[in-house]
Amino acid sequence: MIAWHDSPVVIGGRTILHRVAFRAKAGELVALVGPNGAGKSTLLRALAGLLPGAPKQDSRRVAWLPQGARCAWGLTVAEVAALGRIPHGDADPAPVERALAACGLLELRDSRIDRLSGGQARRAMLARVLAGEPAVLLLDEPTADLDPAAAHEVMALLRVRARAGACVVVVLHDLGLALQHATRMVVLADGRITADATPGDALPAAAAAFGLPYGLDKRPRLLPPVR
Ligand SMILES: Nc1ncnc2c1ncn2[C@@H]1O[C@H](COP(=O)(O)OP(=O)(O)OP(=O)(O)O)[C@@H](O)[C@H]1O
Ligand SMILES: [Mg+2]
Fold first, then answer.
1. Are residues 220 and 145 in the same domain?
2. Which residue segment(s) compose the domain that 191 sits in?
3. Is the CB of 191 under 6 A from ligand 1?
4. How far from chain centre, in Å, is Cα 181?
5. Is there an atom of ligand 1 within 6 Å of 33 CB?
6. Which residues fall inside 5 Å of ion ligand 2, going by CB?
7. Whether residue 151 sits in one domain with residue 120
8. Whole-structure pTM value
9. In terms of domains, do 39 and 139 share one?
10. Do residues 21 and 121 share a domain?
11. Could you tell me if the CB of 13 is within 6 A of ligand 1?
12. Using CA positions, which residue lies closest to atom 31 of ligand 1?
């Protein structure tokens, strides 16, 4: 379980999150969606206990993958994944191997991460988080840079983790991925939650937050061509 109470988050005199109350339980795969600047990453950082005044989280229980996380060092993929064991103070190879396998990285295990493609490096950063086998996964756009098949695979493996009892909160911009894989969709717009429902039920609110025209049948209408 992970929760953020509803005190506002004010940074530099600006209210980034209004009175947002958010809670996610074990077994859930929550897609957090909303426009750029809506406050998704801020809410994830709040949940991770990284904002001033937020209760600290135990890094063995709660793992956070920052948006655009990169590793510029010349470590191998296997070494990066093994960093996920640091909170536990061990070098247990079994969870590292499981994470590498889940992320489809076994063949790349000895490759240097700074020489991988963007999508391969992204998966290695996710493997590091998975290797800690945390009860709560807070993932900020883990499917950015991934090709459609790899993005679906990542969502499917997160679903498996959730079914096994993990609590997963994932920031996404791909509503299709959210619809197909998430158990719940939370829409954030201008620092407020505007919908919190099944992905299908929350879709119109998500579309509205993006200013996309959706028909009553909940199907997206084609936007007119840009001239
Ligand atoms: N440390 C900070 N100092 C000042 N402003 C900040 C800080 N962190 C976030 N903000 C502001 O808070 C707002 C929300 O930022 P946040 O990163 O949470 O958005 P987001 O929903 O994750 O957007 P994106 O989809 O672009 O990643 C933005 O307007 C941003 O400029
Ligand atoms: Mg963000």
1. yes
2. 1-61+134-227
3. no
4. 13
5. no
6. 40-41, 67
7. no
8. 0.92
9. yes
10. no
11. no
12. 37
